[in-house]
């Protein structure tokens, strides 16, 4: 499975061989949170799960196919990791990094 969608910006998404990324960095790149420090605080507070297991280490690696559950202020998001980015891009680029598994609002 390719992390980049056809027609997406070149160099934005890593190839599947990269295989992992820190959860705090991924949450920020996927635009689930606004800042990387917010992502780290969210993880440290225990508001994230990887494949059903509570995660409190911002450096915990994610792999393609992992299911991430994030408890945000007024909602819970459940997403499957579909890819990684080398740097934070536009929201359009971020969409290729995950697949939503929960109900849409």
Characterization of the model:
The protein has a single domain, classed as Structural Genomics Hypothetical 15.5 Kd Protein In mrcA-pckA Intergenic Region, Chain A. Helix content is 19%, strand content 23%. It has helices at residues 23-29, 36-44, 91-94; strands at residues 21-22, 48-50, 53-55, 61-62, 67-71, 76-81, 98-100. Strand 2 (48-50) and strand 3 (53-55) form a beta hairpin. Helix 1 crosses helix 2. The longest helix has 9 residues, at 36-44.
Question: Uncertain regions: pLDDT < 50 for 5+ in a row?
Answer: 1-17
Give the C-alpha Rg.
13 Å
How much of the sequence is in beta strands?
Answer: 15-25%
CATH topology: Structural Genomics Hypothetical 15.5 Kd Protein In mrcA-pckA Intergenic Region, Chain A
- Looking across the biggest beta sheet, what order are the strands in? 3-2-5-6-7
Q: What kind of assembly state do the chains in view correspond to?
A: single chain
Q: How many distinct domains?
A: 1
Class computed from helices, strands and strand pairing: alpha+beta
Biggest sheet, in brief? 5 strands, antiparallel
Order of helix and strand elements from N to C terminus = EHHEEEEEHE
Instruction: Using the alpha-carbon principal axes, give the shape.
Output: globular
The CATH architecture would be: Roll
Average pLDDT, rounded to a whole number, is 85
Helical content class: 10-25%
CATH class: Alpha Beta
